[in-house]
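I would like you to help me understand the sequence and structure tokens below and explain how sequence relates to structure.
___
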Amino acid sequence: MSEEIAPGAKRQVGFVGIGIMGEPMAANLLRAGFEVTVFNRTRPKCERLSTLGAKVAESSRQVAVASEIVITMVSDTASVEQVLLGEDGVAGGLKPGAVVIDMSTISPLATMEFGKRLETMGCAMLDAPVSGGPKGAREGTLGIMVGGSRAVFDGCLPIFQAMGKTITYTGQLGNGQKTKMVNQLVGATNLLGAVEGLRLARKAGLDVPTTLQAVMSGAANSWMLANLIPTILKEDFAPGFSIRLQHKDLRLLTDWITSLGGDFPAAQMVFSLFSQAMEKGLEGQGNQGLINIWEP
């Protein structure tokens, strides 16, 4: 899962945002030998990490005071801004030379603005959104897409290796989020294809397990098909990654595409469908609940 900490690597790591992803990610840092200080607005979410050896801070600012590197893993752009720059935020406790790693999925344009603000304080920022869901977070096998200074990335590599399996340096700050937007477009489009394929198989009266086996044996196979269609067949709509968060990511995607210009019809289509799912009250279901637009 992880490699030994390189000589001279920064060991004091802060982690803000102890949710369904953040908690296992911080736990893996502790297991890898890092000294970890954590904060979450809902303090009980920090209890298990405390038993594993984490220090629990009273604010995001206190996390920064105790840390050389601060990781943020929260739900959206506004939350990152509040955690970093708001009252009692990370910026108030950073020392010159500190590094902020935002592993949330947020606006690429906002990411670059946050980086500029931190640079004026003598601090660096990396954007490092992840893919792999709660299972990947627990097992330390996340895909991590990192933007920012190459030298800063190299210095933080042992931290990423404690949490992920595939760590990709994508270039300048903001490129991590842009890469994640591409990931979300491809993933959501694959999910729509898998859901519609299942609906078609049912409509045609095919044996669904047999059809699934046949399709998965060829070029149409995908992670979404292999992992989410079986949960639909079990009528399990518990969220690994919720419709609400997918809708948020697809809104970020369409906003970014608008700033770029160009014609991206699949992005508009999947955003529209996830908007329908939100309007239908499905926001708390996992992504696989997209099928419930048609099959309540």
